[in-house]
Amino acid sequence: MQLHELVNTFGQDLRRRYGERVHKLTLHGGFSCPNRDGTIGRGGCTFCNVASFTDEKVQVQSIQEQLQDRAKEIKRASKYLAYFQAYTSTYAEVQLLKNMYEQALSGADIVGLCVGTRPDCVSDDVFALLAGYVNQGYEVWLELGLQSANNDTLKRINRGHDFEVYADIAAKARSLGIKVCTHLILGLPKEGRSDNLATLDAVLEAGTDGIKLHGLHIVEGSTLARAWKAGKIDLLSLEEYVSIASEMIQKTPAHIVYHRVSSSARRPTLLAPLWCENRWLPMTEIGRQLDKSGSQGILIGDSFIPD
Ligand code: SF4
C-alpha cells in the first residue's frame, strides 16, 4: 500500500477537500530570526543552519518574481498554497507582513497561506492579520516549530521558548480558525523513543491539526555540527527513525494531517546521517512498516481509512 493509504497525508487531505491536487509553493520573505539576531538569543537553535533547507538567492527576489520562478511547479496543479518557510516568517512589522502575504495571496489560484514561525513570534496583530484571511475564505496554516515538548530539551537545543508558550499559541490560533501544524524532531540529543512519544501526547493534548516529523540531521554551520565532529552526538539509524515515526503515526488520531513524515537535506551541507539525503527512502520504509503493523491511529483504536 502507498503511504497515503496508511497515513492521513496533507496531499490527500487537500485533494479530498478541494477535489483536485493543491501544490505548496515555497516562498522566501527574507525574514530574519529573533533566535539568531539577539532579540531572543544568538546562534540559533543548535540544529539550525537555514541555508540547508532554502535557496538563499531568493531572498532578494520579490514575491511576484518568486511566483514567476515557480512557473514550472505552477503547471503541476491548478490550485496552490503559498508557503513562507524560511527563518521566522512572522518576524517583521505587521504592515510588511501584510504586503508580503497579500502579494502571495493575489497570485493566480492561491487558496491559502502556510506560515512557518516560532511560537513566541506571533503577536496579536499577526493573529488579527491571519484571522482576517481565514474570514475571507482562505486556508491558513501556522507552522509552529516546537521540536520537543520537554522543556529541558528545549533549553539544551537553545530554542528560547518553552512548551507552555507553544501550547498557548496553538490554542489561540485554533480558536481563530487558523490551523496549526506542529514541527517535531526525532533523535534530539538525550532524547529517545519514550521522549518522542511523550511529546506526541503533549501536542495532542494541547490540540493540533497537523504534524511534521523530521529526523535530527547534522548540517554544516550548525552548533551541533561541532559536537558531531567531536564524536559527541549519536544519531538515529534509518531503522530506528522508521520504527519511532511509525509508532507515533499509529498513536495519532486519524483526523490529524501529516504534512511530512521525514525530511531531507543535501550534501555538502548535510553531514549526517546520510540516509537523510534520500527524500523517498524513509517515506517508503515507514509505508512498509505501517503496511505490516497497521495504519495511522491503529494503536488508539482510530484507524485511518483512505477514501
Ligand atoms: S530553527 Fe528556526 S527558530 Fe531556530 S534558529 Fe533556525 S530559523 Fe531560528
UniProtKB/TrEMBL annotation:
Query: Which PROSITE patterns does the record match to this protein?
Result: RADICAL_SAM
- In which domain of life is the source organism classified? Bacteria
- Species annotation: Vibrio marisflavi CECT 7928
Q: Sorted alphabetically, which InterPro entries does this protein's record hold?
A: ELP3, Elp3/MiaA/NifB-like_rSAM, Radical_SAM_C, rSAM, rSAM_horseshoe, rSAM_sf, YhcC-like
For this UniProt record, give its keywords in alphabetical order, as a comma-separated list: 4Fe-4S, Iron, Iron-sulfur, Metal-binding, S-adenosyl-L-methionine
Question: Which protein are we looking at?
Answer: Radical SAM core domain-containing protein
Supply the CDD domains for this chain.
Radical_SAM
Q: Which residues form the Radical SAM core domain?
A: 17-260
By its UniProt entry, which PANTHER family does this protein fall under?
HISTONE ACETYLTRANSFERASE-RELATED, PROTEIN YHCC
Pfam families linked to this entry: Radical_SAM, Radical_SAM_C
Q: Does the keyword Metal-binding apply?
A: yes
The prosthetic group or cofactor this protein requires is:
[4Fe-4S] cluster
